[in-house]
Design goal:
Layout (H helix, E strand, L loop, with lengths): L5 E2 L3 E4 L6 H8 L16 H13 L7 E7 L8 E6 L10 E13 L5 E5 L8 H16 L7 E6 L4 H9 L3 E12 L2 E11 L3
Antiparallel strand pairs: 1-2, 2-3, 3-5, 4-5, 5-6, 7-9, 8-9
């Protein structure tokens, strides 16, 4: 599989790049954004550099795991970059320039399990659903010759917003387990979910 870009009504999903570091640093230093992450908030830029480098070096980067960019955002923000876009807003072209702000990351980071993080300034606006819905549809298209393909998720049961989002995307709970992961919160439980191709 090759790197690709996915365009939605408001978003561009693309491969991670080194200049995404400022955006990633903002989220990874935010205690609320990191509350249910597998590590505590980053206190050293090197931690974030390493995370981003690993994402860039992954075979899933830009294939099933993406940086999420908001179209038409303020070009003066430090996490913005400029893309050439066609006038019908359906993808890159040569007609107009549009600024993009990196607002999150989302995808199947290991090719099977879905994960996501979004800048807290953009929560509650439907961007996570829009991005993940596009990624799930992209996955089914990529795996069209595998009718039994499954997308998995592992969520802390206290993370009710993520659970609600995944249910809205068609994920169903398939199991639970106690004390599956030790993080900065202590021992965490898991709710296991799966999504399968619609008939």
């Amino acid at each position: 599989m090759h790197q690709t870009e996915i365009w939605t009504e408001r978003l561009l999903l693309r491969a991670a790049e080194p200049n995404d570091l400022d955006a990633f640093r903002k989220w990874f230093q935010d205690p609320e954004s990191m509350n249910y992450w597998s590590t505590p908030p980053h206190t050293d830029i090197e931690q974030t550099k390493n995370f981003l480098a690993n994402m860039i070096g992954s075979p899933q980067n830009g294939v099933l795991d993406f940086v999420v960019c908001l179209q038409g955002s303020d070009p003066t923000t430090p996490t913005s970059s400029t893309f050439r876009m066609s006038s019908n807003n359906s993808g890159p072209g040569t007609d107009t320039e549009s600024s993009m702000t990196v607002i999150g990351k989302a995808g199947l980071y290991d090719g099977q399990e879905i994960g996501f993080m979004f800048d807290r300034d953009y929560w509650g606006k439907g961007y996570a659903f829009e991005a993940l819905d596009a990624i799930v549809k992209h996955y089914w298209a990529v795996k069209e010759d595998q009718p039994d393909a499954v997308i998995k998720a592992d969520v802390d049961p206290r993370n009710t917003k993520s659970l609600r989002l995944l249910h809205k995307l068609g994920f169903v709970e398939v199991g639970t387990a106690k004390n599956t992961f030790e993080t900065h919160l202590g021992w965490c439980d898991s709710v296991y979910l799966e999504a399968r191709r619609s008939a």
